[in-house]
Each structure stands twice: as C-alpha cells, then as structure tokens.
C-alpha cells in the first residue's frame, strides 16, 4: 500500500477531455491520468525498478509567488529505493513557452510548488514531453508488459524453467524459449513477460517491438 493517496479525483467529463485509468501492479490499485502525457509518465514510473512507491495528484499545496498565495496540486510523488522522495510536476513543453496562453498559469503553479518544496526541504522537479517521450517505442513495450506484473497470475515453475534455460545461452528469442522448454506455452509467455516487467530479464525494448522474435537475456544480477 502506498504511503500516499490521491488528494483529488475529478468526476468524469469535468476535467479535460479524458481520464485514463490503468491498474498498477506496484500499487495494487487503479492509477488515474488526466492527460496522455501523464499516462505515458505513469508507464515509466510503474516499470522503473528504482521507484518503489508513487502517487498521482499527491498533494495540495500553497505557495507564495510574487507576494500572492497560489494553490496547486502536484502531479506526482515518487519514493526511490534509496529513500529519496521527489515531487514531480508534468507539463507539455509547449505550455512552458512564453508565447503559450497557458504559460502564465503553468509558471505560477511551478513557482508555487518549488517555493513550497523549498520551504519544507522537499525535492522538486518538472518533467515534460521532451523527457517522457524521448523513447516512444520503449513506452509502447513497457505499457504492454504492465498487465503481466500482477502476482495472482504468476507461474513460478515456468519462471524457474525460463531462467534455467537462459543460463545456458547468452540470449535467446522468446519463440526459441517456447520451443526449448517442454511446458505450457501460455504459462511460459506470462513468465517471460513477468520477468521482463520485473527487470529480471533484459531485452532491447528501446528499438524493437516486443514479440516472439525478441531476444531476451538474464539481467546481470540473475546470472
């Protein structure tokens, strides 16, 4: 269970055009994203092994900007495995350009958040589409893996067989794994994708669509 819960969940149709809902195996609950950019950010956070806890729409804050009190809700709180906590705001880079109609509001929000975090000795950062969507194919592949992260469908025996087989080879295609191991193919498929989600297996997810021809290998800490 996350240390935090969302402070604001707007009703459908009242905020923007779409609310995206995705199940998080890491949090064991539904995570709501209020833009496609926030949803892509969720994919990266959910699948990052160094992030052990997070919360969207995590904190309602008040900050002083040019002598005025500004309220804002910070998009994300992140907890890293080393104990570091970070508050993160998600913005489209176009909205941070002075020519944008949203620039003034975005600047006030970020300034208020930074003032609040500085006053309370919290880490704060801003991520944009330039950070988040740097590798679009990676996001697509990771989004595919997330449903396989649910523990209730795990087949530990299949996982052991996959890991044992990969100890014999530097790397092997998922298709070859199915052929080499005498076991239920659906269980093997779930095992491979679960192990990729958990980063116990590696694959070139940045540059190739994930599928039967994908070459997988053990992570170094699995060897």
TrEMBL record:
It comes from the Bacteria. GO terms for molecular function: nucleic acid binding. InterPro entries: TnsA_N, tRNA_endonuc-like_dom_sf. Residues 49-129 form the TnsA endonuclease N-terminal domain. This is TnsA endonuclease N-terminal domain-containing protein. It comes from Desulforamulus aeronauticus DSM 10349.
């Amino acid at each position: 269970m996350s240390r935090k819960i969302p402070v604001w969940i707007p009703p459908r149709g009242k905020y923007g055009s779409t609310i995206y809902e995705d199940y998080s195996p890491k949090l064991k609950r539904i995570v709501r994203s209020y833009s496609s950019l926030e949803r892509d950010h969720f994919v990266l956070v959910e699948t990052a092994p160094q992030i052990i806890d997070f919360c969207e729409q995590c904190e309602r804050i008040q900050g002083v900007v040019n002598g005025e009190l500004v309220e804002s809700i910070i998009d994300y709180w992140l907890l890293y495995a080393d104990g570091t906590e970070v508050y993160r705001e998600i913005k489209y880079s176009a909205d941070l350009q002075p020519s944008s109609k949203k620039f003034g509001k975005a600047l006030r929000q970020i300034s208020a958040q930074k003032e609040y975090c500085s006053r309370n000795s919290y880490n704060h950062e801003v991520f944009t589409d330039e950070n988040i969507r740097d590798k679009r194919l990676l996001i697509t592949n990771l989004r595919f893996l997330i449903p396989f992260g649910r523990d209730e469908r795990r087949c530990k025996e299949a996982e052991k067989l996959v890991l044992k087989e990969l100890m014999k080879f530097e790397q092997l295609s998922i298709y070859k794994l199915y052929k080499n191991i005498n076991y239920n193919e659906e269980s093997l498929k779930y095992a491979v994708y679960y192990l990729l989600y958990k980063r116990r297996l590696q694959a070139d997810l940045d540059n190739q669509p994930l599928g039967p021809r994908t070459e997988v290998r053990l992570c170094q800490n699995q060897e």
